[in-house]
Amino acid sequence: MRTLRASLVVVLSLAGILLALPAPAALAADAGGPEDALHQVRPGDELHLLAGYYYGDARQWERIWQVNRDQVSNPNRIRRGMILRIPDATPPAEPYADFVARTRRAQPIAAPPPKGEAATDPAAALPPPGQQPPAAGAPEPAGAAGAPSPPPAKRP
């Protein structure tokens, strides 16, 4: 009888423990939610780039700066190797290196023209597709040297 009573106490204790634990669905919901992340600064990193990666909005860079003000006195100057805390960060599916490469490809930064020179569109100097550029020293086609082109036809 004592063995039965001891077994019953153990079973009821285990049942009580299992009921006190959160449900697996609740654990899954918490695992995917926002939490603080740590990011080691790499060459070329800027706060707006980190905000774009972790929040999907580069304008949220101040959230990162406010949390890391003890390390970052000037938000325009973060040093390689710093460990920054990213508050309430949703873990992105895309690797950081892929995000940086895609972001930098989408927004090339062109150097300004030298002083005294006007900015020119390099595509304007190229011939139309399927036509070869004229050879150096070759005469220009008739009508191309300073002659105005006819106005475009008007549509009714």
Radius of gyration: 32 Å
Distance between the termini: 106 Å
Total DSSP E strands: 2
Average pLDDT across residues? 72
What is the count of DSSP helices, taking H or I runs of 4+ residues? 5
Outline, from the CA principal axes? elongated
- Helix percentage: 25-40%
Short descriptors:
two-stranded antiparallel sheet, 156 residues, single chain, 8% strand, elongated, mainly alpha
Give me the secondary-structure topology.
Layout: H1 2-20, H2 24-31, E1 35-40, H3 47-55, H4 61-67, E2 83-89, H5 96-106
Antiparallel strand pairs: 1-2
Helix pairs in contact: 3-4
Tell me about this structure.
α3 crosses α4. The protein has five helices and two strands. It is elongated. It starts with a helix and ends in a 50-residue tail after the last helix. The protein has a two-stranded antiparallel ribbon. The longest helix has 19 residues. It is mainly α and 156 residues long. Helices cover 35% and strands 8% of the residues.
What is the structure about, briefly put?
With 156 residues, the chain is mainly α. Helix content is 35%, strand content 8%.
